[in-house]
Amino acid sequence: MKIISFTMIVVSMSVLVACTSKTENTNRNGDEKRDTLYAKDPLPSWNDGDVKKAIIDYVNNVTNADGADFIPIADRIATFDNDGTLWAEQPVYFQFFYALDKVKSMSSGHPEWKTQEPFKSVLNNDMAGVMKQGEKGILQIVAVTHAGMNTNEFDSSVGQWIDTALHPVKKIHYTAMVYQPMLELLKFLQGHQFKTFIVSGGGVDFMRVWAEKVYGIPKDQIIGSSIKAKFDDTDGNPVIVKLPELDFIDDHEGKPVGIQKFIGRKPVFACGNSDGDLQMLQWTASNKYSNLELYVHHTDADREWAYDRQSSIGKLDKGLDEAMQNKWLVADMKIDWKTIFPGRKSE
After folding, report:
1. Which end of the chain is more exposed for a tag (fewer CB within 10 A), N or C?
2. One domain, residues 133 and 48
3. Is residue 218 part of a domain?
């Protein structure tokens, strides 16, 4: 949504050509200097194997100024799903845990929720009852916990929750359930001047509260689903108020649409973990530049969870078939990752 104006093109043409050439040479020299920084293992939490080698070889090849696969810095776009790709997502998406906890904290002001579904089931910790309410019930929960407040209030609410809430199964903070191997991959790409984006079906405002600090990805490089909002300055204090209406769903076909809408460049590197990421990987695979598609496969029931084709959360079925057919990379958690969560060797 940035509008770029070009003026005095005729007068500046010779200068523009000279500057472009100089910038390209400077960028290529920068790549050569960074090669020495990554001479040591850039992915220490990845086990040596075909997947790790393919990732490192790809990055080295496309940033080699003298190589046939060299990609200009401006086109080094890498996109990552979030839930199940950068952090865990079981037994339900973490943003939904936030919504459930929010219902409980709001319940004192809503005595009618004790007998009104889906809130009754939430307050009774009856997840089966919540699921019986279907999509309508889930949307009700999301609406009352995400809308009706301004963005400052929402940021404060999410920030407090992310700092204090513990995962009901692992009993650790949610931001401690990010994947160490993926943090290393992000750093590796960023160190080679890839611009890394989160492209997730999760709520964009929810992720922006904490993801910049955790992943080192700026807020303006986070794309996600959103609800509508409006500008309000009735009290002389301008705010953006969140509304209980869907605006954009950044999942499945919505991911390449969101990439085009908010980035404007096709990725050369894309990573996901489910069928919801398939279209993003397909879009990346159509890039004219050398490209890499990577699926994270949840195979480790001991340290994390094991699920794919039959899972209601993070289902990987069609995507797994297409990965095999097109020879995309599939990172097997049990085989390819030495550790999963930061600082926890034996999760």
Report:
1. N
2. no
3. yes
Task: Please name the residues in contact with 176: beta carbons below 8 A apart, sequence gap of 6 or more.
Answer: 341, 342, 343
With respect to residue 342, please indicate whether it lies within any of the assigned structural domains.
no
Give the model confidence (pLDDT) of 29-59 as tens digits.
Answer: 555 554 544 458 999 999 999 999 999 999 9
Task: Evaluate if residue 347 carries a pLDDT over 70.
Answer: no
Please give the model's pTM, rounded to 2 decimal places. Answer: 0.86
Domain with 192 in it: what CATH number? 3.40.50.1000
- The whole domain housing 315 covers 40-90+177-230+248-336
Chosen domain end from 109, 137, 164: 164
Tokens of 192: 């080679």
